[in-house]
């Protein structure tokens, strides 16, 4: 029997040994006998049995990094949408089938306990899922890396739908503990807020250094989760910080009867790692979010510098041995924090600290929306982080003088690139700070990168013309093909062998099978089985019965006006009208699935969710439709739900306003699983089109330059709506209360907005979208041709593996050999 004292290198992986270790973990770590063990006990015991084997490689990976003196990558992200880890880790370690057999001997079904593992509530959308894919790929391609974030106790909310409205509830993912993590109390760092800055001078009155004396102090405590690469060749670390008070209870206050006040510091520390993206519509919400961003960035930097000093002693080598990557602007505060540490703690002058800082940091931009490039009120910044505000002013002076010296910047351009926005209240521009403080700034698709140079960072690009580069996003095929779609994975292995499992580019070999009628039939059977699984889940959760032979048309992503769920819903209403008006036509049966969460303070996004559910209620109950069209809003969209929905999709909706989606990764996941894309020339859709071929994707709508031209030349949406009979009727039905008889005016403002300004080009693109959907219908009727095109999609999107993306980051930004 395996015990904690056994040499870990002697752990065996055969089913009999695994079964023994599961029983050992059940008894000695959970204190349970098999006769009384709950399914959650079996889940935890199974994870711990495999975790013991992961630890072996984890320790070896860490030792190799030290012994070989390898450069390390540190990936700072406010989100890591890692999903369930059990299948990921078991599969990457090559233990899935042995664990299945081991548990079967104990009378436990691995598939049943796997569904009990909660999705870690550490992220929201594409940015967080990208970070998770990148962490897995860094371990897979052999890059020594740490991910740094926050260990949210509740994270992003759990979404329920009550009477069609989104309701936000706490996500209690830690209710049964987290058997994957290790608490590292010895890795605790003090974090400060507020207070004052003291200037220290020498005897001659010359400034020597500054000392920040925070008024408020708390601790960041590390929790480590191993991240297993494919075939277990390397295990990296995801280190998440939890907020703890320096003094858990103010005993004097408690004994004096102030029981609430005695716990005030504890509650403030706990709030830092409680909720992802606290609503920032209030001053308190803004302050908490800035506190969170500084909290995890400051703790991470202290950890990084301590590790570097222990290995190399001298911080002068920092850019040569350390690459710190900022995933969007959330950790941009790390730039002045590193400057503070280098100058105030380690005694460097400004010029040397600035050179090391810029050589160490790189920044990924994820948005062209100016409102999404974070800014903070200067007053808030000065109150919470007074020393950092001084450093930001110093950085600003340095680079604005540099810009002036070129002779190429006028006053207006200087104001645009400044780190301080002066109009309508002074604010710190975190996007500009991230750009100026990094040696590399990358976009996440070719189109996005080009638009960065022309829009949000046009002036900074002129000052630093070589800094912006492109790294098109990718996804890990281990999660998004092998695990989520084992039927398709098995079929591909049968056709072309196993090489694609180590090199996704080898999927290209599948191209030859698109014209094989026998293979197409098998491919269709796999898709049918995946659709039956989704239909069963829909019936279980929502009580809606679906026909798996209908086209499954799916749009799942964060609810936002630029992603245009509204366009999809309006087209559903128009199609509903056409089916009722022309029952004699040969309509293609279709199920429109939608899913995603709206930010709690985003009124229009929540209203769009309500509209989707109102439209679904009317259409799904109307006998005149004869089941030809159904609309389904799937609540609480997360990674686990995506793993069911994506393999079942026939049609992938990627319909954002052109020029507004940085990349997207859902588009890649759908194509890899054999769905055809209907989309605009936006984000990575452009590159997907290039890879799969013009004939194997449905493109509609205005291009990015046409959207810009419409906006600049006075686009009149009312005229467009009046010319489109289908659009006008659909908007009239929604606006007049056809779908909201209990509150006829509910959607009047939403629809009036389309008539008045239509910033997201919903009306402008509607006719093109509806016409392209009818082209989709025509192809669907030709089943062999549909499946031929779907197979081409699977075969031609191997380039979108996150392994490829990470190798590009390593070679072109981080300077890490792979």
From TrEMBL:
Localization of this protein: Cytoplasm
One Pfam family cited in the UniProt record for this chain: Phosphorylase
GO annotation terms (biological process): glycogen catabolic process
Cofactor(s) the protein needs: pyridoxal 5'-phosphate
EC numbers on record: 2.4.1.1
Keywords: Allosteric enzyme, Carbohydrate metabolism, Cytoplasm, Glycosyltransferase, Phosphoprotein, Pyridoxal phosphate, Transferase
Coiled coil region boundaries: none
PROSITE patterns linked: PHOSPHORYLASE
Catalysed reaction, written as an equation: [(1->4)-alpha-D-glucosyl](n) + phosphate = [(1->4)-alpha-D-glucosyl](n-1) + alpha-D-glucose 1-phosphate
GO molecular function, one term: pyridoxal phosphate binding
Protein name (database record): Alpha-1,4 glucan phosphorylase
